[in-house]
Design brief:
single chain; 185 residues; alpha+beta; Ubiquitin-like (UB roll); 434 Repressor (Amino-terminal Domain); four-stranded antiparallel beta sheet; two-stranded antiparallel ribbon; 7 helices; elongated
Length: 185
Amino acid sequence: MNTPNESACFECGKGSLIPKIMDLTGYRHNEQFTVRAHGLHCRACGFKTIDGKHSDEFTKLVSDAYREKHGLLTGKQIREARRQLRMSQDEFARYLKVGPASVHRWENGQIQDDALNELLILKTDVAAARHNYQQVAMGSGTDALISFGEVVGTIAPFVEQRFGAPKNIYTASVFQPVADCALPC
């Protein structure tokens, strides 16, 4: 009756649990999420469950569905950000000033809180870090913002006195000459 890949249904006792990919429902923080995952399905009564070897995968899928709904980085996104920085989990943990177990848990289904999610974004996304810097500077008042022209006006006399007439200064954001200045290496 049951093949090596099948087992008796423990819900109805009449059918067989067949392995297949299907929609399964799980919960995170009292919220319900339906995800597509490997599971076991009884043809006789329709019962669905997960076997032990696929429970980690199911946990990650449900956790990531929660994260996506709430605007948090998924485990895959955290892993990819770490890899972009060419860091091991231990190195990444030191960089973030968290324990190595935290990084492992986040990449494998444990959901980070909002504050840690923001830290992850600010420490791995240049555009987000730049935007955060601008918000902090604006919060300090407009006097805290310094234009490129003000920087050149302040630094150029020092550079000229120390190294001679500057030539070909480039802006970091567009890499186009803004003045006939060159700083010695």
